Amino acid sequence: MSFGSPQNPYEQQPGYGQQPGYGQQPPQPGYPQQPGYGYPQAPQGVPQQGYGYPQQPGYPQQPGYPGGPGPRVASMGRRLGARAIDGVILSVIYIFLAVIGVAGSMNAAGDCDPNAADYNSCLNDAGSDFAAKFGAVIGVLAIASLIYEWLMVGLVGATLGKLAVGVRVVKVESGQKPGLGSSFIRWIIPMVGSIVCGIGQLLVYLSPFWDKSGRQQGWHDKAASTMVVQN
């Protein structure tokens, strides 16, 4: 049995054959204790990452656009430009149909004989024919607008005007094409507004200026849960 140091005679000494553990060094007087050999130990409370490549933060996710940033919202200049192009296309159709209707009514009025006893009745019939044809032109134009806006936006996501300026209509939640249901809602709201001398329709198309959501949604977009984005 060996005794300890004079300062601590009962200090326990390591037994025969016992060595300090691997990676551990006995403390030296006057020197701070150094960590043992092996992998460095991280501070307590710091989460550790697994082996392999370091993890990088992912892209911020937007509703309906997982794995990447959200789309670019189309500017009002592009949207109004697309509306102007679509208006020109529909106006050409309207003028073509109106010319056909007016020409037919004028021919009917020209066939009336001023010397005939039923001249006034013939003119009245021609006027009624003109009114009927004018109403038919308006109806055909509404159907053409429905087919043009409803089907193209629902199935393609854009009209010819929107394709020309590089914008398209998408669902807010998924970023996909609106579909026939949403595109019909989006079409019918400005059409109802056009009944009052077109003032309501104009307000609907200008309503994105007052949207504070950052998506520039018009009243028709909010009702259909759609938005217009830039390609």
Automatic annotation (TrEMBL):
Assigned keywords, A-Z: Cell membrane, Membrane, Transmembrane, Transmembrane helix
Bilayer topology term: Multi-pass membrane protein
InterPro entries, A to Z: Pra-immunoreactive, RDD
Main location as per UniProt: membrane
UniProt feature, compositional bias: Low complexity: 1-25, 33-64
Localization per Swiss-Prot or TrEMBL: Cell membrane
Record's protein name: RDD family protein
